[in-house]
Amino acid sequence: MDISNQLTLEQEFELVLYKQKIDPLNLEQAQNLLVETLKTMMLKDNIIKYVVKNSHFR
Q: Pick the residue with more confidence: 21 or 56?
């Protein structure tokens, strides 16, 4: 079984916190939060790609 696509307990907890943060928002606020979250994920991807590309362990 491939567990790489499963969330850790900590990540599951983080999802619950996000849901609690999103529930009271109106549509526009939720959309803005989504855009900011996606931007953060993209920046994280860029950092990971940079580290892998510049890693001395290739």
A: 21
> In Å, what is the CA distance from 26 to each residue of 16, 22, 29?
18, 8, 5
Counting every residue written for the chain, the total comes to: 58
Do residues 25 and 33 touch, judged by C-beta distance below 8 A? yes
pLDDT, tens only, 12-36: 999 999 899 999 999 999 999 999 9
Task: Supply 23's token pair.
Answer: 């529930």
CATH number among 2.40.128, 3.90.550, 1.10.287, 1.10.10, domain 9-54? 1.10.287
